[in-house]
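SAMPLE LOG
Freezer: B-3
Tube label: C17
Construct: single chain, 273 aa
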Amino acid sequence: SPGTSTLSTSRCWSRGVPREPGARWTEPGCQSCSCQGGRVMCEAVSCPISCSHPLPPPAGGCCPSCAGGELPLSCPIPAPHSPLQAGNVSCISPECSPGSCPSPSPADCCSCQPAKCSFQGRSYAHGARFSPDGDDCTTCICRGGEVECSFAPCPALDCPQHQRHLGPGQCCFSCREPPAPAGCFVDDNGVEFPVGQIWSPGDPCELCICQADGSVSCKRTDCVETCPYPIRIPGQCCPDCSAGCTYMGRIFYNNETFPSSLDPCLSCICLVR
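STRUCTURE (predicted):
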């Protein structure tokens, strides 16, 4: 059976190797084993440590070593005033100079307080944001004793310089509203008609009016002839049936008689309807 021998009941077998009674050896995994009464007894290797910061075990070893050095720490350690024993660490605090931090986040081991800022007779803590007296368009911040200020960004304007305006309490210029038109310009010669003016632009049958927003609205008149021989008066849109008659290119007044151009024996008269 495992752990026994046919030659001697007190001999042990371990991993195919015979062990004499009372023998001790180390198995993989840092197990300390011995042969006792024909049985193999194992327990974890016990490592006595005589220093505060031993070195890791060497390759193939089970116990840390106190000889040859020590483990590093997070902050640099100044040279001690007395010799150190192997494997022991002695720590002292670094010497810190008084004063403010050189930067908001110091990288060394000394603690400090960021410097305050003095601006226009007032004191501000590090990181404080404020606006100078009477200037809401400027924002300042205190950084390690120095004041950094910036101005409010303003949009780009598409109006000329003379139309830009800075109102009370405003940080940026704005464009003025264009003045309301006082009339209508109808040609390149600068002719202007007042709002509400009605005129004819060369055609007596077309009438235009100047609107309140400076635009021009025009409308054409449709003529309806009520007689077969109306009179066309220069400058007037529609022919006139009440003033007389037009016959064969000649104008005759109301109730006027005249011979017919087709038959000289016929007499014609201009009648008002």
